[in-house]
Structures are given as structure tokens and as C-alpha cells.
Amino acid sequence: MFDIYVENYKNSVLNILDYWHSKMAGQSDRLDELEDDAVKLRENKTPSDDDRRKLAELKKRSDEHRKVVNDVTASVAVKLKAIKLDQKVKKEDVMKLRQWMMVNIKSKAYPLQLADRDVDIDIDLKTFQLKRCLIAFKNLPGA
To answer: Where are the chain's structural domains?
Structure first.
């Protein structure tokens, strides 16, 4: 009977994660391109002044893209915390939702395999609210 509440919650989470994935896909492509360009420039053992300027520009641009990734990720964490789960849901179902969310967040988080994802989710079992939603990336590509 209360399955509808769980399904509605899952649909809300998936909608937010789909939005997130769409925003991240463009960023990952740009970061990949910047990383490829930077690798080519770093291969030169004696870089010219022009190469150094290009590397500095690539680093600046990749930092901007990383900031977008971090900002979008932070907004997604806030949106996930705002979703309400009905109090009628069983405690066991809430515990299953935590694992389900972690798997889905990791799968939709960043479309690039080089980036390590750290996901930590904590659900308050009294209020059935998301207490903590930590999503972090390590080893993002870029100059």
C-alpha cells in the first residue's frame, strides 16, 4: 500500500539525477578536451612561452569547469535533501532507499570513468529526511 510513496520518492530522485547527469555530460566532454590539449603541451620537454601561456589558459578554463561541476553537485545535494518521504513508509524500505540512492548517484554522477566518486548518504530514521548527502569527486580530469 505504501509502495506508491516509495515509488514517488524514487521518481523524484531519478528526475534530479537525470538533470544532474545532463549538466555533467557537457562538463566532462570539455574537461576531457582540456586534459588532452594539456597532455600534448606537457609532452614538450622545452616548452616555449606560447606553450606556457596556453597551459595557463587551459588550467584556468579547466578550473572554471571544475567549479561548475562542484556548484551543480552542491545544488543537487540540496535538491535531494528537500524531497519529502511520507512518514507511513516502513523503516525497512527507508533503509533500502539509502543503498538504492547511493548506487544511482554513483552511476549518474559523472560520465567519465577517471573520476572517483565518493557518496555518503545518511537518512534520519525518525523523520525519514535525508540528513547528509555528500557527493565528492577525486581525480577530475583537466589541465
So the answer is: 3-138
